[in-house]
Amino acid sequence: SSYGGFGGQDFGGFDFSQFTQGGNGGNFEFDLGDIFGEFFGGNMGRRQRVKKGRDISVDLEISFAESVFGVEKEFSLTRNSTYKSEKIKVKIPTDINDGETIRMSGAGEPIKDGVAGDLYINISVRRDPLFKKEGKNILTEINIKLSDALLGTKYPLKTVDGDIELIVPEGINNSEMLRVKEKGVPIDSRHRGDFLVKVKIKMPSHLSKSARKTIEELKKEGI
């Protein structure tokens, strides 16, 4: 092998000593990338960009309970490229929140000689009149009578799991929280958050004579 003046290698008699990059003291400027590109096929440092189809965005409404436990939903989708309506199934995970988005890779618009775009599903959780989430807990509120607050009671309570009987202890205070364990949002396959119940004491707007007399007697006892 013969070696020349450029890194010790002879490129077929081509003398690199006559050229300098940047034009400082040389005859003209040149680009090493262009020269090596000519030698090695012209694709040095270049990557072919893969074409991607258009992304699609749709809105999907789910119930509060579905947002807590997750659900598999089916909806119709018409792509512009096919103009055909087809059924799409999507698995909604547990503990998804209003405004979150699920991406289904490759489920968007197809494109010739490329990859299909993605499908973005924007989740809207329907407002529930009874429940709301706070972290992994679910909150609700009940109204009880003053007599039930003083004496205690059993209250029929609706939860996301169905109806249960809530024990309200005697002497409970207004706005006090009662906790039903493991009836909240799933944390994993074995654990859940809690179901929190805010107790509001409904004060009577009108007292009968006998009720007033009873209250006056209680007042004398310091209650």
Task: Tell me about this structure.
- It is a single chain.
- By secondary structure, this protein is an alpha/beta fold.
- The chain has 4 helices and 13 strands.
- It has helices at 32-39, 64-69, 146-151, 209-220; strands at residues 51-52, 56-62, 71-78, 85-92, 101-104, 114-115, 119-125, 132-134, 137-145, 153-159, 162-168, 176-180, 195-202.
- Strand 10 (153-159) and strand 11 (162-168) form a beta hairpin.
- The model is unreliable at 1-8 and 19-30 (pLDDT under 50).
- GO terms for molecular function: unfolded protein binding; zinc ion binding.
- Keywords: Metal-binding, Repeat, Zinc, Zinc-finger.
Any descriptors?
223 residues, 35% strand, 3-stranded mixed β-sheet, 3 domains, rod-shaped, HSP40/DNAj peptide-binding domain, disordered N terminus, single chain, alpha/beta
Please give the structural blueprint.
Elements: H1 32-39, E1 51-52, E2 56-62, H2 64-69, E3 71-78, E4 85-92, E5 101-104, E6 114-115, E7 119-125, E8 132-134, E9 137-145, H3 146-151, E10 153-159, E11 162-168, E12 176-180, E13 195-202, H4 209-220
Parallel strand pairs: 1-6, 2-7, 9-13
Antiparallel strand pairs: 3-4, 5-7, 8-9, 10-11, 12-13
